[in-house]
Write a structure and sequence with these properties.
The complex is a heterodimer of chains A (about 400) and B (about 60). Chain A has about 400 residues and is an alpha/beta fold. Chain A has nine helices and 16 strands. Chain A has three domains: about 200 residues, FAD/NAD(P)-binding domain; about 110 residues, D-Amino Acid Oxidase, subunit A, domain 2 (D-Amino Acid Oxidase, Chain A, domain 2), CATH 3.30.9; about 40 residues, no CATH class. In chain A, the strands form two sheets. In chain A, strands 1, 2, 6, 7, 8, 9, 15 and 16 form an eight-stranded mixed β-sheet that branches. Chain A has an eight-stranded mixed β-sheet with strand order 3-5-4-11-12-13-10-14. In chain A, helix 6 packs antiparallel against helix 7. The mean pLDDT of chain A is about 95. Chain B is α+β, with helices and mostly antiparallel strands. In chain B, the strands form two sheets. In chain B, strands 1-4 form a two-stranded antiparallel ribbon. A two-stranded antiparallel sheet of chain B has the order 2-3. The longest helix of chain B is centred in the first third of the chain and has 5 residues. Chain B starts with a strand and ends with a strand. The chains are: A alpha/beta (about 400), B alpha+beta (about 60). Chains A and B meet through helix 4, strand 10, helix 5 and strand 14 of A and helix 1, strand 2 and helix 2 of B.
């Protein structure tokens, strides 16, 4: 049962929403966290690789049950056989999102947030009398993933945080431009394959003109479950219109003939870098909805959780002082931009640069990067191929 | 008259199409896609967004 008034309503119980809800509930605010799906974290829409454990644990220790394995390096298959190996102990972790997402939501519930599943935000109103109205459609899960609507309720809150992911409907309802545009969004599929296909503690990628130039193919082994997430992400610009799953299946068959497929999931990844404007009076977007994903790698779990924390911090502050204006909440945007947004803008430029190169130039760039990796990531490694390094640096600098 | 058609058997319920629909004509509830044919402008963006090819714009026979 829902009350009619809350301090904060968080829409969407993914990593961003759950972290924001938990941190606000911890401060003693009355928080409602709603999730429209019957089961939090299902279906998984993710390759499940994340950055370092330390990066995720700023929020608190991650339960062992959520962690599949620790990643100790990257292997990138580039064009013309120029492959790059990047050994780096502890550079990432493989998560089990089916366990991780509900675990995060449970932490929020344990800290006092009211968590409701099968609850969909249907409409978010303008600010009236210091509150926003959220119309919530409640439902009953039928056990097979489908939900039957049972009731509609209007609930009021001093602050609404929308963490509704790539669907980003809530932000658009209140007038923010958070639409996922073709050419600025990646479509991805992830095929769960039985067994470990590639080096167990490495993330393996295939990129460039010889494979997929509009994105990359990945193989992320999950050691505990003895499965591999094999998938691919492409820019959704119509070039591969509607057959991304087919192309990925073809690559799986080509690279690992006879692989046994457990199931397939899909998803969209915003790769436009952080939105320029994603707060309003008593309203903020967080996570994928605010395009808080890395535009080069497509990773977004750590930045979503970080953003959830920052958002909770400023909202808590604002609730205390009684100011939750757009101007005030801009501080949250600035904090996110300073922390990861600036880096994401740089990575966006690098991705656009990399994808724009022709095959020969791409091979050249891969060689320079390979030298850098072999040279132990020291800047002086670039000096071994000064002409080439300078050429690409100049090209990159000139690239608009 | 063109019409947006959704193949439930192929759909991965990833909701990618929802995020890219410029008219908010799509919504995923539970694992089912709901299409508002009145809002749909049959632009075809969602058919490109779908990784599985579950969405198609077809010529409806009797619309």
């Amino acid at each position: 049962m829902l009350d009619s008034r809350y301090d904060v309503i968080v829409i969407g119980a993914g990593p961003a929403g759950s972290v924001a809800a938990r941190n606000l509930a911890r401060e003693g605010h009355k928080v409602l966290l709603i999730e429209k799906r019957e089961r939090i974290g299902y279906p998984v829409r993710c390759g499940e690789a994340s950055t370092t454990l330390a990066d995720l644990q700023t929020y608190g220790p991650i339960d062992d049950s959520c962690i599949e394995s620790i990643i100790n390096g990257l292997y990138i298959y580039g064009p013309n056989g120029v492959n790059i190996e990047v050994p780096k102990p502890g550079t990432g972790i493989m998560l089990n999102r089916e366990i991780f997402d509900p675990w995060l939501a449970k932490l929020a519930a344990d800290d006092g947030a009211q968590v409701e599943t099968c609850a969909r935000a249907d409409f978010v109103g303008d600010v009236e009398g210091g509150e926003r109205m959220v119309r919530i459609v409640l439902g009953k899960g039928n056990g097979d993933g489908t939900v039957t609507e049972t009731a509609t309720q209007e609930v009021f809150a001093k602050m609404v945080i929308a963490a509704d992911g790539v669907e980003s409907r809530i932000g658009r309802m209140v007038g923010l431009d958070c639409l996922q545009y073709p050419g600025k969004t990646c479509t991805g599929v992830d095929i769960q394959v039985q067994g470990i296909l590639t080096k167990p503690d490495y993330l393996t990628f295939w990129q460039g003109h010889d494979f997929i130039n509009d994105g990359y193919i990945w193989s992320f082994p999950k050691q505990k479950s003895n499965v591999t997430n094999f998938g691919a992400g492409f820019l959704a610009n119509g070039k591969h219109a509607g057959n991304i799953l087919e192309i990925t299946m073809e690559w799986l068959e080509k690279l690992f003939p006879g692989a046994k497929i457990n199931y397939t999931v899909g998803g969209l990844i915003p790769v436009s870098s952080v939105l320029k404007d994603y707060t309003l009076d008593r309203f903020a977007l967080v996570g994928d909805a605010a395009h808080h994903t890395n535009p080069l790698t497509g990773g977004g779990i750590a930045s979503a959780m970080r953003a959830g924390r920052f958002c909770a911090q400023y909202v808590n502050d604002g609730l205390g002082r009684g100011v939750l204006s757009k101007e005030f909440l801009k501080q949250y945007e600035k904090r996110c931009y300073g922390y990861f947004g600036k880096m994401h803008d740089f990575e966006l430029k690098f991705r656009r640069f990399l994808l724009a190169l022709n095959r020969d130039d791409q091979i050249g760039l891969y060689k320079v990067l390979q030298g850098f990796a072999l040279g132990g990531y020291k800047k002086r490694a670039f000096l071994k191929t000064p002409m080439q390094s300078a050429k690409y640096l100049y090209k990159f600098w000139k690239f608009k | 008259m063109k019409k947006l058609v959704h193949d439930r058997k192929v759909c991965l319920a990833c909701a990618g199409c929802v995020g890219m629909c410029p008219k908010m004509a799509l919504d995923m509830y539970g694992l089912e896609l709901q299409i508002d044919h009145e809002k749909c402008i049959r632009c075809g963006i969602c058919t490109n967004a779908c990784p599985a090819g579950a969405l198609k714009i077809t010529e409806a026979d009797n619309a």
